[in-house]
Amino acid sequence: MDAAAYQGFTTELTRRADADGRFRGLVALGSMAARDYLPDDFSDHDFFVIAQPGHAETLRQERGWLPRAEEVSHAFRETAHGVKVVYRDGHLLEFAVFDLEELSWARVNRYRVLLDRGDVAARMEERAQATARELQQTAPDDAWLFGQWLTQVLVGLGRHTRGEVLSGRARLDEAVRLFCLLLARHVPAPEASVLDGLDPLRRVERVYPDVGRELARAQEGDSPGLARALLQLATRELSHVPAFPREGVAAVEARLRALHG
Q1: What is the set of domains in the chain, with CATH numbers?
Q2: Which domain of life does this protein belong to (predicted)?
Q3: Please, where are the H alpha helices in the chain?
Q4: How do residues 33-69 score in pLDDT, each as one tens digit?
Q5: Cβ atoms of 103 and 191 closer than 8 Å
Q6: What does the alpha-carbon distance between residue 228 and residue 261 come to, in Å, rounded to a whole number?
Q7: How far apart, in whole angstroms, are the C-alpha atoms of residue 22 and residue 100?
């Protein structure tokens, strides 16, 4: 969906919500919010619907209020509040429907209020601040993150070598996620503000282009190669961190050499 079509869909969605008395609010999320970065041809529409009392469940189940509802090819209930919709042209919607009190369940970072019939903007700001506090309070320390990262590499390598290729790769993919979390925490970058606190893999290639390219190439190869790349990248980018497990990395590197040369 190009930029004009994307904006047209957002405008039509907002118009329909404004004309429907069941809507208390509409909130754009992620790239739809157009904060820090704009949607591109691959962006889906992420949003919250804030329903008037008594209408939330109806809006979760109905599709007629959506733009181009006749072009929906598939829709399903992802969570108690959330729905995913796929259009015939491949465009994706991910949305959740809450009443005002149910917003306390939501986690929010980037957002833009498109419709507010009472208290929506204030509640969204409360949720954004609460989410930031929750992430800070529950964030694991560096020792735990490095330990998890290192052991995911080790276990993933062992399972791959045993013949459990799928399970081994899943462990290494988790090691990639942990590495990106540590990278964002400890390596400053000019565009770091566009990183996603809820998903450490989002926009890594934009913020850390060299690291992103190296990781992407490694992920296209086999699991031993990905393990090797993770160990090398961590040593290069993160060895300045006091909790960096130098002896542990050396042990896993030795194991990798013994198994795969």
Answers
A1: 3-136 (3.30.460.10), 142-260 (1.20.120)
A2: Bacteria
A3: 3-19, 56-61, 120-138, 142-162, 165-186, 204-207, 209-220, 223-238, 246-260
A4: 988 888 999 999 999 999 999 999 999 999 999 999 9
A5: no
A6: 11
A7: 12
